[in-house]
């Protein structure tokens, strides 16, 4: 089995799309491998060449989405005192642009989430921010970890709520996130300055 073979890649893509299609209709618990194969138009044997169980396929879908979005969460500056309103706006706009490019997959994963996807989404934001900023990495204190955890949870909460209750369009949601994130970051930066981290 060559994972670089075009047939393998196409079948894998079909399996992922089949799972997302089924998740639009029911929970993962109710989905069977047989159902996935019917939607993907492949045999059970083919499925098992790719994944041991449906949960492996689900985890692959989640990992692909999160890994693809990871770049959007990278800090735009290396030092806290370099953060400006323009940088914060660019950062939140990058996140929402990434959200928009994955909107179908995200909508499905968020609406069927039992809490695990929210946890994974939040962790990837926090870990990416901490690893991407040498200053935060050098001053990895309890307070810094709490601030980054709070911010990651806030961004995740905003995005997840927007998908669950789509009361506005993408540009309006992006504008709202910019305002909220700018105000929250101003408080965090002030506290970090008090602690002497910048």
Automatic annotation (TrEMBL):
Start-end of DNA-binding region: 32-51
Keywords: DNA-binding
Sequence ranges assigned to domain HTH tetR-type in this UniProt record: 9-69
Gene Ontology MF term list: DNA binding
InterPro entries: Homeodomain-like_sf (IPR009057), HTH-type_Tx_Regulator (IPR050624), HTH_TetR (IPR001647)
This protein's name: TetR family transcriptional regulator
Species of the source: Secundilactobacillus pentosiphilus
Source organism phylogeny: Bacteria, Bacillati, Bacillota, Bacilli, Lactobacillales
Record gene name: tetR_7
């Amino acid at each position: 089995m060559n994972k670089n073979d075009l047939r393998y890649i196409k079948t894998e893509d079909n399996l992922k799309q089949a799972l997302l299609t089924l998740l639009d209709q029911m929970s993962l618990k109710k989905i069977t491998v047989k159902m996935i194969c019917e939607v993907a138009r492949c045999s059970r044997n083919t499925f098992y060449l790719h994944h041991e169980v449906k949960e492996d396929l689900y985890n692959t879908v989640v990992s692909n989405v999160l890994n693809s979005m990871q770049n959007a969460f990278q800090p735009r500056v290396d030092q806290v005192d370099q953060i400006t309103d323009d940088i914060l706006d660019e950062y939140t706009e990058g996140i929402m642009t990434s959200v928009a490019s994955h909107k179908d997959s995200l909508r499905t994963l968020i609406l069927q989430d039992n809490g695990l996807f929210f946890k994974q989404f939040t962790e990837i934001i926090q870990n990416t921010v901490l690893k991407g900023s040498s200053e935060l990495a050098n001053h990895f204190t309890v307070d810094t970890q709490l601030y980054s955890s709070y911010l990651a949870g806030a961004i995740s909460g905003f995005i997840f709520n927007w998908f669950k209750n789509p009361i506005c369009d993408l540009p309006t949601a992006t504008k709202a996130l910019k305002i909220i994130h700018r105000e929250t970051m101003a408080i965090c930066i002030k506290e970090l300055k008090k602690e002497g981290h910048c």
